[in-house]
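Re: [help] complex structure
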Amino acid sequence: MSKQNRSGFPILRPLALLILLISGLLYFTQIFNEPSQVEEPKNQSRVDLREALSQIKLVLLSSGSFQNHSSSVSKVIDGDTVRLKDQTEVRYLGIDTPEKASPFYREASQKNRQLVEDKSVVILSPKHKSRDSYGRLIGVTFVSPESKPPADLVCVPFRLLSSGLAHIYIKDSNPLLSSLLPAYQQAQNYAIQQNLGIWKTFRLNSKNDFIATRFRFHKKDCRHMQGRKKIQWISSLTAFKSGRSPCRTCRPALHP
Ligand SMILES: [Zn+2]
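Output below.
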């Protein structure tokens, strides 16, 4: 008995160590393999969203080139407008949420409320033309990281776009919007792919039925397009993907 133990032990010990080592390796291989499993094609759009957020972080690093305004949100007016404690009214830059009486108006306002109400925010605005014709501050709203509950990076327009409760809306180009646009487009494309919110109300296809202008697209009989000589035809899908928004007069591509 004692002889067996003495002769077996030196062999058993390296064997046990080897088994431990292999199981340890297997365990770690599994752990390190997990991220690549997350990045399978079906989750591609989520990965795109993460990339888009890193782009926004880069924009924040260069925030010195833009105007900063800090306060807290006292009232949410609708999906894309809030009033701050210091009475400044803020209209989110580069997006549009449904108007009153339109589908998803209530959802967009609720989402905005959930994101910013009573929270400290930082508004990043262009250095020039930072106010609109109503005197509102035009800017990108970020929830301050010190807000409770602690937030990672909450870029409010980005969240509204990725939830399908806003679409990109460009009035004038400016350096701030240009640097954010690729991330906005990724967020919007994600919501289109997932058919979220407002995207259920649009007819999205590749038929070149609409007329493109720089930032909008129109029905061919829109009164704003009358007498136009050079016509650039565009499909609803390409129009949205390029960051154009539907004309507010002719309201193209809506489901009947
Ligand atoms: Zn139009």
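Confidence is low (pLDDT under 50) at residues 1-9, 11-42.
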